[in-house]
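Example record used in the benchmark description.
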Amino acid sequence: MKYELNTEAIAVIAACIILWGVFSTWLERYNITAPIAFVVMGLLVTHEPLNLMHINLESATLRYVAELTLALVLFTDAARVNLRKLRADIGLPIRLLAIGLPLTIGAGMAAATATLGGSRCGWPL
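Model output (structure tokens):
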């Protein structure tokens, strides 16, 4: 597989990062976090009316970028956890992890299967 440097994509991504840096304090007052802002910016730059860049959903590069992004988001969220507050109210995180997480994964799998079909998701349905 041949990899080429896509300078247009790098410029668009850099512009999104700069926009987040400029407006992050203001947006976080309204509980708009970086992951939400970048999803919205990603939708804006890849769809009409802007359509600044095209993303190949089958690209291995896209998969690596998505995995790296997920790892960074999870790491930064984990680094912000206040252990004293967590230990004081341990019931909520346990309920979220034991009940909420499996239900969310199941609902996501069901939605993906219904939307994309089993064979497109990689599941033999």
